[in-house]
Amino acid sequence: MADAQRTHRVVVVGAGIAGLTSALLLAARGLDVTLVEKAAAPGGKMRRVLVDGAPIDAGPTVFTMRWVFDQIFAAAGAKVEDHLKLQPLGVLARHAWRGHEPRLDLFADIRRSAEAIGEFSGPQEAQRFLGFCRQARQLYDHLEGPYIRSERPTLGSMVGDLGPRGLMALMQIGPFSNLWRSLSRHFRDPRLQQLFARYATYCGASPWMAPATLMLVAQVELDGVWAVEGGMHAVAQAFAALAEARGVKLRFGCACEQVLVRDGRAVGVRLADGEQISADSVVFNGDVNALAQGLLGDPARRATAAVAPARRSLSALTWLVNARTSGFPLVRHNVFFDEDYASEFDDIFRQRRLPRRGTVYVCAQDRTDEGTGSDAPERLLCLVNAPADGDRRPFDVSETEPCEQRSLALMRECGLSIEWSPQTHRLVTPADFERLFPATGGALYGPATHGWMSSFHRASSTSRLPGLYLAGGSVHPGPGVPMAAMSGRLAAETLMAHLDSTSRSRRVVISGGMSTRSATTGGMA
């Protein structure tokens, strides 16, 4: 089999974190790997944009689940710390509410968070918070193996993997309940319900439709949040450099126009310039809807089911800013809440319009825990959730300008002033995201995680087309940098398993995970 592996040719389409992970791991196992990417640099959604001369991360901003990256680098014979400089954050996020003077910080140290919540909402809410964290950790411990480290589960496999204790833990949270309802049983202060309900948006979902299991995000953050020197784009650069060192042929500026199919099997790709690259296997790291809509050729349509527009996750309006700020002590991650949280998601998912009372997230990319800035301009990513209708309407100034003014007003009422001008910021709309990532409507998280069955509806790493494997945020186990990286690892492991076996039904489970957490993790419950 070793000789077969050396001659097995793989083309990976897309240099997002999932594609980079697949290419790196397959090359480390001895396969002949070529990675093609239409952009001029790696990263996919982890892209960097220049604003008034400053490079700003324009996509994901949070580095969590470090064990995922430690294991990927170890499998390639490397160490994360030799390629990335990471700084653990003590302050996970700073939160403010319109019309309420107190701010609330959450910390990597659970005891500090409990003390802060006690001062903010009272000692009973602090105790409820500790109970919430205990349940979140228990849930994470039971779901990590059967969900995060395994190829897409079925209902039967999930029940078997969980076992009696896991099923009991799942039943305790009410698995058929939504996140908002579950949080209302944990907290009495509506501001705390709003704060923790925001975990649903990490998967592009509404708290009123997302499953209660998403409370496990609390444990993910308690395990550690890091700032990356050079920004999140530096993660993509490090993966690309290591992949190239392990033998991957990187082809940037090469758009894939078609997945080639012969005798019912994927056999390579054709690039936009007409070049054809033959392969024994293809890994597609892009939104699965691009395949289903025929954007990679009619023969590849059958590889996966289409995602209906109603099932799309959140998109966003983002403002990439390089400007001076004053008034509010920004830290790395900041959240500004408006009143009437339910109206935000009703506007987006039911009315299909920009929210009238939208939450504003601000990543201050030059700050860490100290929260101190200088008089110089600083780099900010400001984000408001939006409907994924970028293929249906242009999101022109008549629609975006009122949202922009409402967002600025909310931040001002919470104390933050930004020297806002046409020269200091750049707007990105759902229509822009659709152009960057076709067939999504601008959805940033693949299908929305709505309903308790959503875990079983995402595409698997094994497509319906033999020889074609799937990776990325629209594929199991879901969106976010570590989860997308895990999808790339699952695609690579599934491909290797198929090389070792004639059966395509073998389900891949990756070892390690929670049990291998190191001293690099943050405070734990």
UniProtKB/TrEMBL annotation:
Keywords: Carotenoid biosynthesis, Oxidoreductase. NCBIfam families: carotdesatCrtDProt (NF045637), crtI_fam (TIGR02734). Gene3D superfamilies: FAD/NAD(P)-binding domain (3.50.50.60). Residues 17-495 form the Amine oxidase domain. Belongs to the carotenoid/retinoid oxidoreductase family. One of its GO terms (biological process) is carotenoid biosynthetic process. Pathway: Carotenoid biosynthesis. One of its GO terms (molecular function) is oxidoreductase activity. Transmembrane segments: none annotated. This is 1-hydroxycarotenoid 3,4-desaturase. Pfam families: Amino_oxidase (PF01593). It comes from Rubrivivax gelatinosus. InterPro entries: Amino_oxidase, carotdesatCrtD, Carotenoid/retinoid_OxRdtase, FAD/NAD-bd_sf.
